[in-house]
Amino acid sequence: MKKFYLLILLIISTLLVACGGGGDEEAQADETSVIGDDIEGATELTYWTFATQHVDLFEESAKRWNEENPDNPIKLVAEAYPFDQMHNNLLLSLQSGKGAPDIVDIELGRFANYLQGEPQLESMNEYVEPIINQVVDSRFEIYAKDGEYYGIPTHVGATVMYYNTEIMDEAGVDIDSIKTWDDFINAGKEVVANTDSVMWNVSTTDWLMDYWPMISQQDTDMFDENGNLIMDSQTHIDTLQFLQDVIYEHEIAELTPGGMNQSEEFYGYMSEGKSASILAPIWYMGRFLDNMPELEGKIAIRPMPAWEEGGDRSAGMGGTGTVVTNQTEEVELAKEFLAYTKLSEEGSQDLWTVLGFDPPRWDVWESEAVRENNKYYQYFGDNIFDVLLDVREEINVLNITEYTPDVVTEYNTNVAENVLRQQAQTPEEALKQASETIKSSMNE
């Protein structure tokens, strides 16, 4: 099936080239930014992304690079495309051997597709290995194959709990006393008994915000390290049972309005004080600032509750690996610039100051640059990186495969709906059925 799929991609690529150089309409970017076009002799590097805010990071880096390297300037042409279009065009370009950019972002869930066979990407080991002891290495492993690091992560995506301290204080709960999920349930009972709020919400269309991080913190995933599907294991069943129980047995949680905590319906609900906490990665801070400004000064960040005393209290969720393709004519310059942008101390600091992300290099988490007062500290308080430092060694590797998107779809479409909303299946029944469905597609 894989060979057939790749053959189809090659045929489509050939047809596109024959019809006019790859299809002008397909190649239209939503946004194009050029830095350094006014510098004589600058070497051009092209960069593709699906996230327009990432362009800001590379623009800042290109400006700084040209100031610091006047004898080796670059002309950066950064283009932002729609998500699917960019990933599809990139895959076609790499398979056809032409049309790929020098540098490109690849989303975590799609990355495995680009590691099939011999990756058409350049190894970044010479830049990663010297600092591997200064980074959250689990976030580099998900973009690696056979000991070669191909993708440079954009953030750790450390998952934390966001507590509404106004509600928690009204309930008489000290958030620092919540160490385990059992503590969380007990705190939730106090919230429900003493306030007009629930403790938490459980998603039905976005497992990234509860089920997946709760699995990861137990050092497991949908696939094992060998790519075997294990989503119907007892750990998975028990975790899904926990999510069902907090809603229907303990009655401390509700289904997330809008299905996910990244919906307009949920933002309004949370802003009105209907729920006391959110489980989400650090990058979710931007959602608060943009969509829930009323909660400024009321939200505190703490580690995830552990499943048992001494257990892991975080998980790395979401992500983008930036790569250098093997079609670049400026291999060394492209690799050096990518490392400069995302692995250097200054670049790592920019990941925080420009994008509001938790940099993969934990050694900059104590630097003055990331500790300077800004809009995030004003909203959440000054302990953001203290929490991250506390949990940095408790973030496990994710086992991403080409079938991970199938698991996500199956969970969001059927498992969560049947178990959490309809209560039509037990967690075991739903997960075993989903496992059989996905295994069937894997064997095609």
From TrEMBL:
Keywords of this entry: Cell membrane, Lipoprotein, Membrane, Palmitate, Signal
UniProt key word Endoplasmic reticulum: no
Signal peptide: 1-18
Key word Membrane present: yes
Source species, domain of life: Bacteria
Pfam families from the UniProt entry: SBP_bac_1
Protein name per its UniProtKB record: Arabinose-binding protein
Organism: Oceanobacillus kimchii
